[in-house]
Structure prediction request, 463 residues.
Amino acid sequence: MTANFLSVKAAFSAPVGSELTLRGWVRSRRDSKGVTFIELNDGSRFKSMQLVVDAGTIPDETLKQITTGSSLAATGTLVESPAKGQAVELKVATIHIYGGADPQTYPLQKKGHTLEFLREISHLRVRSNTFGAAFRLRNALTHAIHMFFQEREFIYVHTPIVTTSDCEGAGQMFAVSTLNMHQPPRTDDGKIDWQKDFFGKPAFLTVSGQLEGEIFALAFSKVYTFGPTFRAENSNTPRHLAEFWMVEPEMAFYEIEDNMRLAEDFLKYTIRYVLEHCREDLEFFNQFIEKSVLATLEHVAQSDFGHITYTDAVSELQKSGKTWEFPVTWGCDLQTEHERFLSEEIFKKPVIVTDYPKDIKAFYMRVNDDGKTVRAMDVLVPRVGEIIGGSQREERHDVLTQRLHDSGLDEKPYWWYLDLRRYGSVPHAGFGLGLERMMMYLTGLKNIRDVIPFPRTPGNAEF
Ligand code: ATP
Ligand code: MN
Prediction:
């Protein structure tokens, strides 16, 4: 075998007449008189390569093993395809079977499996059209994210996953401990003796890299972290995961307006990138998952985001005449139904809500001159609701200390965070984008479990 090994994707643009070998998994097989057609997919693109096997070319013994799900290498000549649907096909000379797949038991036999069923076979769903498209898209999105920041002189920083500080100052963290849960060491007064634990104090999986990101922003000016984050929120919703990926830029010398402009540029850049590089996969989502995906993305890439303050948003929601599951009053947190109404009905595009009441936002957000609101910004998009949460950070030492106290937090563990406000403090801002929320927006998939390879949710951490 002297033929070239090519991916299916590369083979589609190889010259007609090339001798080559393709390897992959059989999506389907169809026999008609004197010829067998095989759809071979190797994940490199949505479209499979059609293999054409004339009767008598390969031994019956081999032909028998070619079933949906089996894996093989096919060597042959790339020829123009007489059928419509593809420009080229591979006229097969030889086939080597790597592994068979018993048609009686291979679960991906028939079309039309539900997403729920496919979730139970996450080891095989990646070989389906939907999940092939989703995870190629996720790869491209990740690449676009790095390109966006790298082109703008941002430094990529790896913030820790195990942490002893709680970013939000609120619970919902997973504990990391090596203590014996059945018989933990105790202090004289009967409490758990955390000094005997691995890190000498309680430790957790991070809920956000922001606080450490701020350390780096105040040295490198513009930075971003991009990694897994963990939240033990016991909310079984279609838009929350216990483990998800977050992109968090943090910029020194940025105020809230600069932060909003960056978030808008960032979302448009990544949308344009996937529109250009993932057309085939997006067309699949547009046809089979959500009919509005392509039109929405093309529209958003070109139009300006809406802007509204929290206070104005509350009055819009109140005078909408809708009956809400969660009634709206000034001071309440906006729920998904409110977020979606604002972006879907009022603005009909992404909208940035700013200046939330300080009591419902984290202690580190910069307090406005009114003393009641903070420089927070949430980006809301149709279908998904909140996709980005961010703020200008409180850079004034005295105000920040007061905010810690008012939030009932001990200032001691935040000594280094406060130090940043004592030595060379500057205005700074940042935001967090949930990668899976962005994926939901791009694909139209309605359950967040279908845009991450192996979802972790309450009661489930399979695979
Ligand atoms: P929500 O109100 O939707 O729960 P949040 O206010 O808790 O979000 P932030 O703490 O601001 O969210 O986190 C920043 C971003 O991370 C959010 O805008 C969202 O895109 C994403 N995100 C937050 N929690 C989750 C989760 N449990 N699963 C997936 N993505 C999440
Ligand atoms: Mn949340």
Summary: The mean pLDDT is 95. The CA atoms of residues 10 and 189 lie 68 Å apart.
